[in-house]
Amino acid sequence: MDHNDLSARELAARIRRGELRASTVIRDTLDRIARVNPQINAIVQDCGADAMAEAEALDRRIADGQQVGVLAGVPVTTKVVSDQKGYATTNGTRLFQDVIAPQDNPFLRHMRQKDAIVVGRTNTPAFSYRWFTTNAMHGETKNPHNPALTAGGSSGGAAAAAATGLGHIAHGTDIAGSIRYPAYACGIHGLRPTSGRVPQFNHSGPDRGIGPQIMAVSGPLARRVDDLRLGLEAMAGYAPDDPWTAPVPLIGPTFRRRVALVKRPGGIDTDPRILDDLDRAAALFRAAGWEVEEPTELPDLREAVQLQIDLWLSDGHEAKLAQAEQEGDAGAIALLRHYADRAAAIDVARFGEIFARRSALIRAWRGFLEDYPVVLMPVSGELPFQQDEDLRGGDVLTRLWEVQLPQIAIPLLALPGLSVASGVVDGIPSGVQLVAPPWREDICLEAGELLERGFGFPALLPR
């Protein structure tokens, strides 16, 4: 049998019951990686030897009657931007190729406590700045549906790995759409948790700047929404090495099943196929008895994008640009130079204004989500970009950042967001985004499963 035909939950259950051996599952996954990965370059660091040793040890524990975790024997991948003990945390760069992690990032520590097994580490663009996954250190990750398209970024390797069955659950990170967009581009699902839900800290390097601390998150990508749920359960929780984490329950109180349908958030142009996806999703909600409305007013998203850019790219801009130029990465250089004048205008007073406005926007959105616990909107205003489209000049880069507004704004607002695959037409994936109140990933996942049943499960590539 192909283990990818089972959900992560069912696979782990069969391993716990002794119906499958973890070592067999991991060996089969590593064999699939050897066959498939050379065509897409999703996994760029091999964890095979460690994975087999962990699987064999897990089999012995099960044979001895010991209790094992909810992800017992489930193959997973991690992104090279995050620490995994004994492996280089390259962040897609040659500059960091010798930065070896002394211990696991806390999200991975939690996953290992649940007996997940890492089979490989996935690619990211240099410094994780782009929606395109290619770099001089690890090379280019191909979109498994269409090599002319981006696999997304920055978790493009994670999305491509999950789409092709190179692990049931892929770890990604997201500060401006880096989980949701690659999932969208590769035709799978991706969950950006609430800021503080999943702990993260790299012991291999210094603390991050304030923007990444309050906006960047780790989360799961997978072909099944329930795999995202299980992945979140395994990653989440309080950790002393991440000062932003909080031990908030994963399941919240009952909520009104009311959806705000927003087809053109911030007034962006939205591709007709995406508009059709949104209408199909709205019809699925209505058929299931949910209320769906198109509100005439929506709290601001455009300002949230501007504040996100200032907190992420402007803080420490000179050092970021110097590193990008030292690495010689064209994509990172193009992005940072594009915002250089803006970054130069930021001063201490402006940072105070940014945080005051951020509080006001968060307050407005929390109030809106009291009335509409689910917002249904695009992931992007366009279908997946052509590979390296951001290198075609400043005007193109401006357009790309414009159509990505629905995903860039959400991190500033500290809200969870779920990218749900809607299908693949003529080799081009698409999907929709669901946004819920803070700490209510359970609402995103419930709504996402409803859409998954209507849209259909993403196909495994290749069969």
UniProtKB/TrEMBL annotation:
Residues 25-445 form the Amidase domain. PANTHER family: GLUTAMYL-TRNA(GLN) AMIDOTRANSFERASE SUBUNIT A, MITOCHONDRIAL, TRANSAMIDASE. GO terms for molecular function: amidase activity. It comes from the Bacteria. InterPro entries: Amidase (IPR000120), Amidase_dom (IPR023631), AS_sf (IPR036928). Pfam families: Amidase. This is Amidase. It comes from Salipiger abyssi. Keywords: Hydrolase. Belongs to the amidase family. Its EC number is 3.5.1.4. It is an enzyme of class 3 (hydrolase).
